[in-house]
Design goal:
three-stranded antiparallel beta sheet; 3 domains; alpha+beta; Double Stranded RNA Binding Domain; DNA polymerase, domain 1
């Protein structure tokens, strides 16, 4: 049986200084050997560590690779590399390729910025409606401090320290960044990126983050529609930018999501069929809908009362965005969050609460719940969601016409009108 660990440091130092006419090779065992080549430049010979191996049985041709130079690579470390190569062989891997991969990772390691962009480009842009916002937040919160560093070297304390720098001022956003970071790194880990998995143990308290309050504000109550009336009359006064006036009017008219209008283009509106088709790309629940075999589009009928306004916008901005330009989600949300103050309302509400308002109002007026859900563009769950492909266009149109009548009533003198529930609806 061939021996192992046959070389000594004394023998290696002798190889460095002895005079040789040609190269000399001595074995350490288990495939490891040292090759000494005479040097014509200085008194020291060149010593290279070699590892000889076969892929397969002894009928296959042997391969030889250089592990490093002595004394830069000591005898002990050369043996460690030999053992690593033998472990690769046991796993069916070629040491030559594994060493090349290790060198590549060392020379150009995957950075934090590389990994975050990989998740954005390969997943979020296709699956997340707010992918651009995710990238902007990563670039603001993480990239300046950690973006250039090797991903594999970043541990839990690094993430926490970096996020905490801004979490005191933006505690809710900090939680949002953390959740997206963890999802991005899980995606990368599944695709072979080397990651310190302690990042997945970070919790909101660790970074000083807070959960976003799930408010359930509605501008209509059982006994009062006053706040919605205030809003309607304020919009009719027109003392704001046309973009925001048109946006808010259409939000309270359709009950749609803000992004569906913010991203809406004039080509989505067909005045022959009187239908607004929200493309799947703008639909928040498109993945769920498409998983059930649906297109992911949302179709909303256009009430006659809205046709003049929508036609005018489409003619003004033909071939472009319905509202004339593309504003960021942050700008729109920021403006919408200030309306309640301008109206003198005590409780704050957002543009998304207008969607809840329309849903509540329609239900209180006796519109069937499944029609309201379809109008809002919610994904229908359960068996009904799988087998029912109806867009309920006639029912939606009736609902929207009824809703337009209510908004018209709110624009008038309501001092002598009592807003009754669905049992005794009156106008």
């Amino acid at each position: 049986m061939a021996g192992k660990n046959k070389l000594t440091d004394t023998a290696l130092k002798k190889l460095l200084s002895d005079n040789y006419v040609k190269a000399v090779t001595q074995s350490d065992g288990l495939g490891l050997s040292i090759r000494a080549r005479p040097s014509k430049v200085n008194k020291q010979n060149n010593l290279n560590w070699l590892f000889r191996y076969r892929i397969g049985d002894r009928t296959t041709s042997p391969h030889t690779i250089v592990l490093g130079n002595y004394p830069d690579l000591t005898l002990a470390k050369a043996r460690d590399k030999r053992d690593e190569c033998r472990a690769w062989l046991a796993d069916g891997k070629d040491p030559k390729f594994e060493i090349a991969l290790a060198i590549d990772r060392t020379i150009k390691p995957i950075t934090v910025e590389d990994a975050l962009n990989f998740w954005i480009d390969e997943y979020a842009l296709d699956k997340r409606t707010n992918a651009i916002k995710h990238r902007q937040q990563f670039n603001k919160w993480l990239v300046p401090e950690l973006g250039h560093l090797p991903l594999a070297s970043i541990q839990k304390p690094h993430w926490i320290k970096t996020i905490r720098k801004s979490s005191k001022q933006y505690p809710v956003a900090a939680g949002y960044v953390l959740r997206n970071l963890q999802q991005a790194l899980k995606f990368c880990a599944k695709r072979g990126y080397e990651i310190d998995r302690s990042v997945f143990d970070i919790e909101l308290d660790d970074i000083g983050a807070k959960k976003q309050n799930k408010r359930s504000q509605r501008l209509v109550e059982d006994d009062s529609w006053q706040r919605l009336e205030d809003l309607v009359k304020w919009l009719d006064a027109g003392k704001m930018m046309p973009y925001y006036r048109n946006l808010t009017l259409l939000l309270i008219s359709f009950g749609c999501r803000t992004q569906e209008l913010r991203l809406a283009q004039t080509k989505e509106f067909n005045f022959d069929t009187k239908v607004w088709t929200v493309p799947a790309a703008h639909n928040k629940t498109r993945d769920k809908d498409q998983a059930k075999g649906q297109s992911g589009e949302i179709k909303r009928p256009i009430p006659d009362a809205l046709i003049p306004m929508l036609k005018s916008l489409c003619e003004q901005h033909k071939g472009g965005y319905l509202l004339g330009e593309l504003k960021s989600a942050e700008a729109v949300s920021g403006w919408g969050g200030k309306i309640y103050k301008l109206l003198g309302h005590d409780n704050s509400w957002s543009l998304h609460d207008l969607r809840r308002t329309v849903a509540t109002g329609l239900n209180d007026m006796g519109i069937a719940p499944h029609v309201v859900e379809a109008l809002l563009g919610h994904s229908i769950q359960g068996v009904a969601g799988i087998y029912n492909r109806s867009q309920y266009l006639p029912e939606k149109l009736d609902a929207l016409n009824t809703w337009q009548d209510r908004l018209a009533l709110l624009r008038g003198d309501t001092n002598n009108v009592v807003m009754l529930g669905r049992a005794n609806e009156k106008f």
